[in-house]
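Weekly structure sync, notes
Attendees: PL (lead), two postdocs, one rotation student
Agenda item 3: pending single-chain targets
PL asked that the sequence for the first pending target be pasted directly into the notes so everyone works from the same version. It is reproduced below exactly as submitted, 244 residues in total.
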Amino acid sequence: MAALMTHWTKSNTNWKTSNALPKTLITHLPVFDAASNSTFTMVTLTINLNTKTMKAKLLLLLLAFTAGVSAQTTHHINWFPGVPATETNITVVPGDTVMWMWTSPHPHSVTSETGSAETFDSGVITGQGQSFSHVFNTVGTNPYVCVVHANMAGTITVQTVMGTDKNTDVSFECYPNPVTDVLTISAKENITSIKMFDLNGRLVMEAAGGNPVSKIYMANYNAGTYLVQVTAGGAMKSISVVKK
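Predicted structure, written out during the meeting:
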């Protein structure tokens, strides 16, 4: 991308092409390969810059490519017998990570069902505090189930959504607060860990991060005040969150 960028200059708010533009530009762009499940490949792109039209198209290509790069989100699902559908049926965008967290001592699995857009299987895992993660890259629906407890099931829907990043000057923020269903934690750097405590100091949730944004599905949590402790970029900060 560096070679591509050097041939464009900006004057005030108007973009213009440099006089040093070559007649033909050969560059290498990283392209996401859905078939390899989160692997990026390099594609060689040759563009003829002889006309103003092609120069304009190159700028549009550059802007579109830049706009497509955004922070990904980690979605946390508490995985236990009786987990409500409001927590197991969620919508994500390509590149998002879903992490299932074992919050009971029973054996469970996270296994995609027939017809799922992607295939994933944790195998049967036993032990509270265990987890399984999968990065979803293919647009479509992904029904899944626990092979041990058939009533533990849900669907991950992957769809392309255009939007803007939420900017903030603080190290991280939780919203909405108060929360009734989904709590979003947004940080400037990758979140490394999240812990949630009740007012008695009891640890009610603990998860690893991996992305600058995480979502905690709290529909099944008791109403009250919780202390959310987030570690990101080597720093730790806590904030009170009210669950309605």
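Discussion points:
- The first strand starts at residue 8 and ends at 11.
- The chain has three domains: 1-9+23-32+41-69, 80-163, 164-244.
Action: rotation student to compare against the earlier draft before next sync.
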